[in-house]
């Protein structure tokens, strides 16, 4: 997690804001829908969502203390 936290702080320096995490989540899920089609089952979508939310949560906690 230290690397993720450092990554998050650099993102703030680049101008990333909290709302950008929501937009990125939606873009990621849309991209997966386009690339995987029917293979993006509800379970696969949920797994990606949980993974992204965990990572984004760590980044937001580190960067926006």
Structure, explained:
The chain has helices at residues 2-14, 18-36, 42-63. The radius of gyration is 13 Å and the shape is elongated. The longest helix has 22 residues, at 42-63. It contains three helices and no strands.
Short description:
This protein has helices spanning 2-14, 18-36, 42-63.
Q: How is this fold's topology laid out?
A:
Layout (H helix, E strand, L loop, with lengths): L1 H13 L3 H19 L5 H22 L2
* Radius of gyration of CA atoms, rounded to a whole number: 13 Å
Element order: H for helix, E for strand: HHH
Could you estimate the helical fraction of the residues in percent?
over 70%
Average per-residue pLDDT, rounded, comes to 93
The CA-CA distance between the termini, in Å, is 16 Å
Q: Report the major sheet.
A: none
Unreliable residue runs: none
Global structural class: mainly alpha
The strand count comes to 0
Oligomer status: single chain
How big a fraction of the residues is strand?
Answer: under 5%
Output the number of helix runs.
3
Task: Describe the global form.
Answer: elongated
Provide keyphrases for this structure:
mainly alpha; 65 residues; single chain
